[in-house]
Amino acid sequence: MKENNDFEQRREHQRINTCILVIISAYYNSLEGMILNLSCGGAHCVLEEFLPLKTKVQIAFKLPMSTFESHQLRLQGTAIRIDHSTKTNAYDSYKFAVQFGEVPPYEKKIIEDYIAEKKKNDDNQLKDFMR
Predict the structure, then answer these.
(1) Do the beta carbons of residue 87 and residue 128 sit within 8 Å?
(2) What is the pLDDT of residues 71-85, one digit of tens each?
(3) In CA terms, which of 59, 108, 117, 129 is 20 to 30 Å from 38?
(4) What domains are defined for the chain?
(5) What is the predicted pLDDT for the residue at 51?
(6) DSSP state of 121
(7) Where in the numbering of this chain does the PilZ domain appear (predicted)?
(8) Is residue 10 over pLDDT 60?
(9) How many other CB atoms are there within 10 angstroms of residue 114's CB atom?
(10) How many CA atoms lie within 13 A of 15 on its CB side?
């Protein structure tokens, strides 16, 4: 049986580390960034712009499902946690968590399938590395 820390046990949705380009729209602006990890309930992102806590956003991203297929998702959400800025090269960057609003069942299934496939691929790479 796999042991998890208390925080992981409290999570409602499985989460996976990833690196996906994202467009965050808020206050009539569109900001480019990266999704660092993803679940059906939300995403942990990094941007070069600061977003205030509780900002309502639209988050748009493509999930690669195979070599020739990807799915474009556009979800509504709220910035629920802002991490302190970090200096990367000449730029400040801000990490923040977006909690998704209502995720339609079809889009939830796409996210679940992406997470399952990525986890399987990551596990296989780890097994290959350990040989």
Answers:
(1) no
(2) 999 999 999 998 866
(3) 129
(4) 11-130 (2.40.10.220)
(5) 87
(6) H
(7) 9-116
(8) no
(9) 21
(10) 18
